[in-house]
Amino acid sequence: MQELHDAPLAPLTTFRLGGPATRLITAGTDAEVIDAVRAADDTGTPLLVIGGGSNLVIGDKGFEGTALRIATRGFELDGTRLELAAGEVWTDAVARTVAAGLAGIECLAGIPGSAGATPIQNVGAYGQEVSATITDVVAYDRATRATVTLTNEECAFSYRHSRFKAEPERYVVLRVRFQLEDADGLSAPVKYAETARVLGVEPGDRVPLARARETVLALRAGKGMVLDPEDHDTWSAGSFFTNPILTEEQFAAFHACVREHLGEGTEPPAYPAGEGHTKTSAAWLIDKAGFTKGYGSGPVRISTKHTLALTNRGEATTADLLALAREVVAGVHDTFGITLVNEPVTVGVSLDD
Fold it and tell me: Which residues form the active site (predicted)?
């Protein structure tokens, strides 16, 4: 277990933003993770758990307490069952399952971050979510001071949400278990319309696993969503805002705003999101509110490839990031009456400040 003091945290995030931590511990085993968490809890020291840092916005003042970087490793396949240590690099794990001929997470290729973060956010993209394949999650419960195993149902998954996100101070994920599918080298049924179109198939069809993964990687790269140190469009947290889910009443009011601002013939994106609810596109809202690709003149700008990503152009601060995020939120609300919600976890700062 490695320990550093007054340690920079910006290099541990994909935004490359944020001040230092009073202390940074890097844990390579589950036992070291638990020991570090217990030590912080025993002394009342604030604790920040860091995985791949791809969904994290840290304030410029940094973090007064212990930052715990989880660097555990473990990839175990037993037939179609997969167990990943929390510190495993997610993109590498997806590649290995595809190479093994197993379907279920191939469309989650290219998503930066660690395996342990995937259940917290219920990570999803291109028609797949980890909640569809996770069987259970092993975590350290800070309330009971014990290691627990939570079933899929107990994880309380929903759109970009889970029990872990609802109780952020309680659980530290140690291991994630998945049930994958052996479909004779084929992918899971393709669900996402854009993916199906590029693949030249109909939604519900299956394609070779490697082809599905490569197609998703190409789609993500075209939107600046695959990490590249030389490409500032990837110095981000991916999608900065979640897609709004609206009640029937909220969607009717939104539809009226669309007609008022964009004309009677304009129809906003609308997708079923459970009984009485409709999901619309945050990217569409941002673009139609006037925040187009490349918007901004300062050190933080909207990606030149995708309106959902706010990007660090190289010399930014977290304050710069929050300023643009607030401008976008205000502009979308003024235009359409919808308040966007940030997807990344904020530490020491808030869009509401």
Answer: 160, 239, 343
CATH number at residue 31: 3.30.43.10
Share of the chain above pLDDT 90, in %: 96
**Domain range enclosing 11:** 2-70
What global pTM score does this model have? 0.91
Residue 236 and residue 309 in contact, taking contact as beta carbons nearer than 8 Å: yes
The residues that bridge with 147 in the sheet, in sequence order, are 140
Which tens digits make up the pLDDT trace of 245-301?
999 999 999 999 999 999 988 999 999 998 999 999 999 999 999 999 999 999 999
Q: Does one domain contain both 191 and 213? A: yes
Q: Examine the pLDDT at 105 and tell me if it is beyond 80.
A: yes
For residues 260 and 275, give the distance between their C-alpha atoms in angstroms, rounded to a whole number.
Answer: 27
Q: Where are the alpha helices (DSSP H) in the chain?
A: 30-43, 90-99, 118-121, 163-166, 193-199, 209-222, 248-262, 282-288, 318-336
Cβ-count burial of 12 within 10 angstroms (0-12 exposed, 13-18 middle, 19+ buried)?
A: buried
Query: Which residues carry out catalysis?
Result: 160, 239, 343
pLDDT at 304 over 90: yes
In contact, 174 and 142? CB cutoff 8 Å: no
Whether residues 189 and 215 fall in one domain: yes
Neighbours of 92 (CB within 10 A): 11
**Model confidence pLDDT, tens digit, residues 168-218:** 999 999 999 999 999 999 999 999 999 999 999 999 999 999 999 999 999
Q: Are residues 167 and 196 in the same domain?
A: yes
The total number of structural domains that make up the chain: 3
Domain boundary among 167, 200, 222: 222
Regarding whether 92 and 207 lie in a shared domain, the answer is yes
Residues 64 and 84 in one domain: no
Q: What is the DSSP string of 238-305?
A: S--BPPPEEEHHHHHHHHHHHHHHH-TT-----EE-STTEEE--HHHHHHHTT--TT--SSSEEE-SS
Amino acid making up residue 14: T
Residue recorded with tokens 């179609």: 80
